[in-house]
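Ops channel
N.P.: pipeline sanity check, posting one input/output pair.
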């Protein structure tokens, strides 16, 4: 699971949801797919969290240059 990229995990999650929505599975198959879907959703969430940590807002440093501000700091600042 850890080796899946976001795109791979998301695609597998979509396929899992479609199979579950079809409703033509046994109870055991449904539970197994549900567990797999939960794992895939958690993997997607982890990968998105990691990506968010890498995002930086580029802001002026006041002297003609720029600084990279962490996303979560920039996100919490009120709009000016």
């Amino acid at each position: 699971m850890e080796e899946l990229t976001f795109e791979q995990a998301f695609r597998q999650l979509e396929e899992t949801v479609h199979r579950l929505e079809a409703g033509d599975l046994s109870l055991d198959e449904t539970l197994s797919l549900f567990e797999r879907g939960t794992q895939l959703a958690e993997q997607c969430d982890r990968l998105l969290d990691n990506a968010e940590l890498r995002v930086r807002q580029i802001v002026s440093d006041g002297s003609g240059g720029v600084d990279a501000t962490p996303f979560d700091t920039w996100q919490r600042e009120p709009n000016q």
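N.P.: looks fine end to end. The first strand starts at residue 56 and ends at 60.
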